[in-house]
Design a protein that fits this description.
Elements lengths: L2 H36 L3 H5 L2 H19 L2 H9 L3 H7 L1 H23 L5
Helix pairs in contact: 1-4, 1-6, 4-5
């Protein structure tokens, strides 16, 4: 395979996925903020230096996981189904965002909810 083709596939993937990363991060932040607000006043007390560091690590890991989308995208672009893939790859974005939002939901629920027993 020529280097120019790889460059085209990678360039197309970057142009498609990177603007959507902003929306991805905003949606995950909304999930966290909703749980924080729902957990008030307890959630305020759970914000400590170490929990902020944990959120930073989780945010970085969420963005590393977002990079996984490049593997199926580039392989699909290299296949004979490229035209169909380019029209329907938004489905992968929706599934990925939904999966990440569920993970953010459970992490936030664990950090910000107070269950007196």
């Amino acid at each position: 395979m020529e280097t120019a083709q790889w460059r085209d596939y990678l360039g197309d993937a970057i142009r498609y996925w990177e603007p959507r990363r902003i929306l991805y991060n905003l949606l995950l932040a909304v999930v966290v903020v909703i749980h924080f607000v729902k957990g008030l006043p307890f959630s305020k007390t759970s914000l400590q230096f170490n929990s902020l560091l944990l959120f930073f690590v989780l945010a970085v890991l969420a963005n590393v996981a977002y990079c996984a989308v490049y593997v199926p995208d580039i392989f699909a672009q290299m296949s004979s189904m490229r035209d169909s893939w380019l029209r329907h790859r938004w489905v992968l974005f929706i599934v990925g965002v939904a999966f990440a939002a569920v993970l953010a939901h459970f992490w936030s629920l664990g950090m910000f909810s107070y269950n007196a027993q």
